[in-house]
Amino acid sequence: MRFLILLLLALLFASCFPARPVPVSAPDTQTDPPPKHTFSESPPPIISRQASAPARATVLQIAGITFEGVSFDSRDHRLVVADQANGPGSQYADAASAARAHGGVAAVNAGFFTPEGAPLGLVGAAGKFSGAWNSASSLGSGAWYETPSGAMAIARREKLGRGGAAAMRELIQAGPLLVENGSDVRGLEGNKPSIRMMILWDGGTRWWIGRGTPCTLAELGRALAMGQPAGWPTRHALNLDGGRSSDLWISDSISSGPVLRRPPWNRPVRNFLVLVKR
Fold first, then answer.
1. Please, where are the H alpha helices in the chain?
2. pLDDT (0 to 100) of residue 50
3. Which sign, positive or negative, has the C-alpha torsion 5, 7, 10, 11?
4. Which positions ≥6 away from 264 have C-beta within 8 Å?
5. For the segment 218-241, what is each residue's pLDDT rounded down to a tens digit?
6. Cβ proximity of 139 and 245 under 8 Å
7. CB-count exposure of residue 128 (10 Å: 0-12, 13-18, 19+)
8. Are 67 and 59 in contact (CB under 8 A)?
9. pLDDT, mean of residues 16-36
10. Percentage of the chain surpassing pLDDT 90?
């Protein structure tokens, strides 16, 4: 009897307190970090899909070189070659007259030529060719061209090839290449400062034509690779005929124009690159 009374008292006492919860281990939230993505080779360069920007005159100093020219988008403008079959000065006295004859808004002198006035390299204007493929001289180591579909590019001579060049609608063979794939080209001449003319390309639709104050080719290549004379990184740059051939004209229809940079002692040239609206 006493045992039953003690058992009932024990049960009554236990019911007055809540049961202690059984501790439960927290789930393991640590996981291995996500794997890093790796590439077996470098991914191709990304060409930005930036909005088209109006053509504008630019001037900027980089590493002591003043760059002056015109920046444009190839979706709105294109370059055409104004060549003179009868030699320098036979049709166009300067860049301004070449541009006006083609309805252009800007122009620069373009390819090299011999003392007799013949192109020093291949030249294509509206599918009509003059000169001959320059396979040896550094002054023909690159080319600017426009394909029959209207796309423009700069390429090394060996990459384009003689047959490829002959298929283009517009073409100027010149050189040397100053910047290739975003890096300055090694081995450029470093002892003869001169006024430089050039054409720059971002690898997409942005282009620039213009001049640089006296410098060597090596200095020019380094300045273009490290700076942005047109406001965007230069992926490819081609040297054009400079010195006493240098001639830059930008019309007042271009933002920050007009610009005229042609010393009176300059000589007539064989051909020009003229900027026209599409």
1. 2-14, 95-101, 157-166, 217-226
2. 74
3. negative
4. none
5. 999 999 999 999 999 999 999 999
6. no
7. exposed
8. yes
9. 37
10. 81
Question: For residues 76 and 243, is the Cβ–Cβ distance under 8 A?
Answer: no
DSSP 232-276: S--SEEEEE--GGG--EEE-TTSBT--EEE--TTPPP-SEEEEEE
Asked whether 184 and 165 are in contact (CB, 8 A), the reply is no
Q: How far apart are CA 202 and CA 264, in angstroms?
A: 33
Q: Whole-prediction pTM value?
A: 0.82
> Residues 99-120: pLDDT tens digits?
999 999 999 999 999 999 999 9
Number of H helices and number of E strands within the chain? 4, 17
Q: Which residues have a Cβ under 8 Å from the Cβ of 212 and sit 6 or more positions away?
A: 65, 66, 67, 68, 195, 196, 197, 198, 220, 223
**Of all residues in the chain, what percent are helix, strand and coil, respectively (each to 5)?**
15, 35, 50
Amino acid at 268: P
Dump the DSSP string for 198-231.
EEEE-SSSEEEEEEEEEE-HHHHHHHHHH--TTS
Condensed to tens digits (0 to 9), the pLDDT of residues 39-56 reads: 233 333 444 467 889 999
Report the length, in residues, of the chain: 278
- CB of 157 closer than 8 Å to CB of 173: yes
